[in-house]
Amino acid sequence: MHDEQDKLVHYEDATFDVMGVPVVWLPYFRHADPGVARASGFLFPEYLQSSTFGHAIKTPMHWVIDDASDATFTPFVTTDDGPIFEGEYRRTFEKGAVTLAGSVSWNDYDGESRLRGHIDSAGLWSLGEFGGLDGWKGGFDLEIASDDSYLRRYDFTETDRLTSEAFVRQSDRDGFLEFSAIRFQSLRDDEPYGEIPVALPSFEGRRRVDDDLLGGVLSADTAGYGLVRANGQDTAHLGVGLDWERSWTLPVGLVLRAVGEAQADAWRVNDGDGADDDDSKFRFHPQAAVEARYPMFRRDGAGVLADAMGGGVTHVIEPIAQLIVAPYHGADSAPDEDSVLTEFDETNLFSLRRHSGWDGVEEGPRANIGLRYTMTGDNGADFSATVGRVYRTRTIDSFGESTGLNDGESAFVGAWSLAVPRIGRITHRVRVDDDLDFTRNEVYAEFDWRGVNFLGSYVHLTADEASTDDTQEAAIEARYTFMPNWSVGADLRRDLEADSWTRTGGSLRYSNECVDLELYAGRRFTSTEDVPASTYGGVRVRLWALGGGGTGERAPAAGACAPKS
Predict the structure, then answer these.
(1) For 381, phi and psi rounded to 5 degrees?
(2) How far apart are the C-alpha atoms of 429 and 416, rounded to whole Å?
(3) How far is CA 267 from the centre of its chain?
(4) CA-CA distances (angstroms) from residue 133 to 129, 222, 287, 426?
(5) Which burial class, exposed, middle or buried, applies to 386 when counting CB atoms under 10 A from its CB (0-12, 13-18, 19+)?
(6) What is the distance between the alpha carbons of residues 230 and 147, in angstroms, rounded to a whole number?
(7) Which among 360, 345, 359 is positioned nearest to 402, based on CA atoms?
(8) Which residues are paired to 26 by β-bridges?
(9) How far apart are CA 92 and CA 123, in angstroms?
């Protein structure tokens, strides 16, 4: 029965069929009619099974509070671990929005019966209504778990570090400025709580000062932090910098760039154990660089390659050379809190600042030499490649040994990428030493062709400052639509270094513009102290007309069950 006044559709003796086979029967069922954009009520339940927490069912209830807010409450009832209660509250404001989400339970899976749960919330507001704060925004991200195992045990997330932050920030065409307080929580067994710092505060900013100083642009930047640990070193840092940049394009096509910059830093270090070895450190680091690029263009309107690329193809080959002059700082090194892990790849081959933070600087004279090539077809296909390395007058110790950056001749870095319209893309990134040994080898591929949707990756990284072991892993996510509305999927991840599976899974899905039914099963092979390896499975149903999508899931953009504006 359709109640047009209350905009509800009522059912008695309702059955849900899959290919003519009844799978759910309800004596009574109702939902809002398709013309209602938002409505309160129960969403379709989800069944789960895991060797960790047993059989479980989630029954979400959606509550439309008013035009600007709603909430979802989800009892998560398990046979082995008891009930878990999930909740999410969302509200939009005239100049902001907030989402408050989390869960709570009482159980004893580690032998101690106590309250457990997690918080995953965020908010962002414009502060322009307060005097003098036009362009400023304030917000927070809050991620907290009661213990290391909780989130993984109940498949909320595989993340092993959580970050909570409160911040204010401002940005415009001339720069930005941000202040924040940051708390980290490690969920790893080998990272004690007392050694994880709290940043009070952390700040960073950059501002363009002059658009035409000696024909170039002058900019200023600053950054700093105060790190406090319960056990271990406390550090405070303040850094300020100036940089000037100017470019020229000569009539022959040669592009020249000159850069000059200076950075001054001060640290205050306290080891936190009561000893009288507190210390203050200062550093001044100037550097200057000149860069030359010579892009060469060629257009092919005929030939086999041009025909394959849609009738024409454009080639650009660009040799690049940078010469940088900078001082050495000797053995009296500065504290390194924000630059411990630095990557060296094609994206920062021509960067004057390769460190992830301000604590690290690159010492000594050097030359960055490389070559870039791109090929673009009229049909949208493109191929690009980059290769290069760094040359120094002598070895340094500014970076971790795994980067290959400290020697007189660095490791080679390179990457290539090929994209074909309506099919997919493949990307390959490498770092290779003089003995042709790979210290980094990454391949990423994605394509969608003839009913097959495929995402694959292979990653090989040598041990670095963050990990004492080499990493070698392969992963595949694939789905094949074998007939209209029906598809099968697989999710595989293998640790090639340990020669063992990390995760495997599979699913069978039926979907159309109004419903999505998925049966899935899998196994997680990794384990921690309180989360053993587990096998899981379940049934997930989304009725798009009834608001069946979860966080991050998108309903069909068109059709009878598409969301109404």
Answers:
(1) -70, 145
(2) 7
(3) 30
(4) 7, 20, 36, 45
(5) buried
(6) 18
(7) 345
(8) 14
(9) 10
Are the C-beta atoms of 554 and 548 separated by less than 8 Å? no
- The token pair at 160 is 């092993």
Q: Which residues contact 347 (CB under 8 A, 6 or more apart)?
A: none
Q: Kindly report the pTM of this predicted structure.
A: 0.84
Radius of gyration of the chain (CA): 28
Q: For 195, phi and psi rounded to 5 degrees?
A: -95, -5
| Cβ contact 423:430 at 8 Å | no
Task: Look up residue 376 and give its two tokens.
Answer: 């673009």
Say how far residue 526 (Cα) sits from the centre of its chain.
22
**Where is 425: in which H helix or E strand?**
strand 424-432
Residue by residue, pLDDT tens for the chain (565 residues) are: 998 888 888 999 988 877 678 877 889 888 887 777 788 888 888 899 998 899 999 999 999 999 999 999 999 999 999 999 999 999 999 899 999 999 999 988 888 889 999 999 999 999 987 777 788 999 999 999 999 889 999 989 988 899 999 999 999 899 999 999 999 999 887 788 888 999 989 999 999 999 999 999 999 999 999 999 988 889 999 999 999 999 999 999 999 999 999 999 999 998 755 444 568 899 999 999 999 999 999 998 888 888 888 888 999 999 999 999 999 987 667 888 888 888 899 999 999 999 989 999 999 999 999 999 999 999 989 999 999 999 999 999 888 888 889 999 999 999 999 999 989 999 999 999 888 888 999 999 999 988 999 999 999 988 876 677 888 999 999 999 999 889 999 999 999 999 999 999 999 998 887 788 899 999 999 887 777 888 999 988 877 766 555 544 556 666 666 655 5
Backbone CA torsion sign across 319, 363, 394, 259: positive
User: Based on the number of CB atoms within 10 Å of its own CB, is 374 exposed (0-12), middle (13-18) or buried (19 or more)?
Assistant: middle
197 close to 191: Cβ distance less than 8 angstroms = no
